[in-house]
């Protein structure tokens, strides 16, 4: 029994040490396609246009600047470089909403909840482009243009 436990500890230690050596001698992760080439906190993206009116209650705010080239993956989120709680004061960007820190059970987390991490699923760049297909949508009363 003691030999089994000793073997498990030695295997775990071997994995830990080999992982640390691999990480220390590994490739530069900043060259990975998932990681933005923009150094964190080095860009202050100004608004490129005024905020457009929302069309319905609880509509996610639209993004008033270009997001071309933004990296949002499981490893990095370019949006949080300006809108995250660590940076919004220095960048002047709106802070991530407190609702984005709650998991599906309502538990408040210290980081953005996984279900709210991929910003561009809900927050889209605003544009005045015509609809792709005809529709009869009208904004809720008191909303819209």
Automatic annotation (TrEMBL):
Residues 1-23 form the signal peptide. One of its GO terms (molecular function) is metal ion binding. Heme c 2 binds at residues 100, 119, 122-123. One of its GO terms (biological process) is anaerobic respiration. Binds 2 heme C groups per subunit. GO terms for cellular component: periplasmic space. It comes from the Bacteria. Electron transfer subunit of the periplasmic nitrate reductase complex NapAB. Receives electrons from the membrane-anchored tetraheme c-type NapC protein and transfers these to NapA subunit, thus allowing electron flow between membrane and periplasm. Essential for periplasmic nitrate reduction with nitrate as the terminal electron acceptor. PANTHER family: PERIPLASMIC NITRATE REDUCTASE, ELECTRON TRANSFER SUBUNIT (PTHR38604). This is Periplasmic nitrate reductase, electron transfer subunit. It comes from Buttiauxella warmboldiae.
């Amino acid at each position: 029994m003691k030999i089994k436990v000793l073997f498990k500890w030695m295997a775990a230690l071997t994995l830990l040490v080999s992982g640390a050596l691999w990480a220390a001698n590994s490739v530069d992760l900043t060259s990975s396609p998932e990681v933005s080439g923009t150094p964190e906190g080095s860009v202050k993206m100004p608004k490129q246009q005024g905020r457009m009116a929302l069309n319905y209650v609880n509509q996610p705010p639209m993004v008033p600047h270009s997001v071309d080239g933004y990296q949002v993956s499981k490893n990095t989120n370019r949006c949080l470089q300006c809108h995250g709680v660590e940076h919004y004061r220095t960048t002047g960007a709106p802070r991530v909403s407190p609702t984005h820190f709650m998991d599906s059970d309502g538990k408040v987390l210290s980081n953005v909840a996984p279900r709210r991490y991929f910003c561009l699923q809900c927050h889209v760049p605003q544009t005045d482009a015509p609809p792709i297909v005809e529709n009869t949508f009208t904004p809720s009363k008191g909303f819209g243009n």
